[in-house]
Amino acid sequence: MKKLVFATNNKHKLAEVRAILGNQFDILSLNDIKCYEELPETANTLEGNARQKALYINQHYHYDCFADDTGLEVEALDGAPGVYSARYAALEGTGEAHDSQANMNRLLRDLQYADNRKAQFRTAICLILDNKEYLFEGIVKGQITREQRGTAGFGYDSIFMPDGYSETFAELGDDIKNKISHRAHAVQQLADFLKNQLS
Questions:
Q1: Which residues are catalytic?
Q2: Using CA atoms, how far apart are residues 164 and 176, in angstroms rounded to an integer?
Q3: Distance of alpha carbon 181 from alpha carbon 177, whole angstroms
Q4: Which of 3, 20, 105, 179 could staple 187 via S-S, CB 3.0–4.6 A?
């Protein structure tokens, strides 16, 4: 079975990706390869951050690997929080980095008077395979709700309602989300590419 490192310790992301890729690949986490340092994420684009993380693992640990970066891009906020989605509240001092509740609170506050609630989740994945780089992108469009709804998922899931649905990601649950999400689209492209490479 092909070993691939997914440059993350986010157990939600890891479970999502393993579920999508199935059992054709042995997906290792950073923990599995004993990588405990903070990976660089200083680029100003999702693609740049994904590439930085993948290159770091490839160069320091010598594994084929892939890394992702995901952002929520809100039309009324000119694409914010975007690359700063995980630390949106921390930027204004109202929460720690990766504090989902504080991030959602800030976003709902920023959109308090906005009628335009259009947003999209976008995932960029950088794969390094046999010393070559490949980029994949997944997008899901939707709306930001006016209040939190649902308990499943993570991040902004309880305030994001994908187009074509009347429930948020957090209400839809993992099974449906894993079929229609931004990450699902990007990982499906990655999976199709990898299966072609192995066939």
A1: 69
A2: 12
A3: 5
A4: 20
